[in-house]
Structure formats: structure tokens, C-alpha cells
Amino acid sequence: MFIAMNRFKITPGKEDEFIAVWKNRESQLDKVSGFQQFHLLQGPSTDEHTLFASHVIWDTREAFDAWVHSEAFRQAHANAGGTKGLYLGPPQFEGFEVVL
């Protein structure tokens, strides 16, 4: 099993708008071989940002890599540029192999 996470620092006061972007997106994940689960996590807030993380569980690292290089991935991320003002920098990717 492989867990892919992206951490996002979101502009204070823009949390609901960020969540709406995720709720209203056209996800292609359920059509991708090896996909198991998706969760959007909201973390702590400071004066500078609110922390969010996307948490996606895959059968294998290879299934995740195939998704990242697929046309479905490109389609799912085609409107990412329309979210200016939400993000304080690019997302930080973290990938984990499940060992236990």
C-alpha cells in the first residue's frame, strides 16, 4: 500500500473557498486502477495560514505513478490555475510506503 499526501498552506479566511474547490472538482480517481481512498484533512490555523492535506491511499507506488502520468491526472488538474489567492506557495508532496 502507498499513501500520497500533499500539504497545502491556505490563506487565512479562504478555508471555505479552498474546501469548495475540492468538493466541486471533477475527480477522476474512482476511475483509476489502484485507487483506494481519498480524504481532505484540515489542520491547525495560525495568523499566517491554515494547513490542509490531501491523503490518498493507493494499492502500490506504481499505481500512484501511473495516475500522475495519466490523461485523467491532467484533466483533474486542468483548472488549478484558477485558484489564485488561496495557496501560500506550492503544495508539499510526501509519499509513504506502508510497512505495518
Automatic annotation (TrEMBL):
SUPFAM superfamilies per record: Dimeric alpha+beta barrel (SSF54909)
Gene3D superfamilies: 3.30.70.100
InterPro entries registered for this protein in UniProt: ABM_dom, Dimeric_a/b-barrel, Heme-degrading_MO
Residues in ABM domain copies: 2-96
Keywords assigned: Monooxygenase, Oxidoreductase
GO MF: monooxygenase activity
Record Pfam families: ABM (PF03992)
Entry-linked PROSITE patterns: ABM (PS51725)
Protein name: Antibiotic biosynthesis monooxygenase
Organism for this UniProt entry: Candidatus Methylospira mobilis
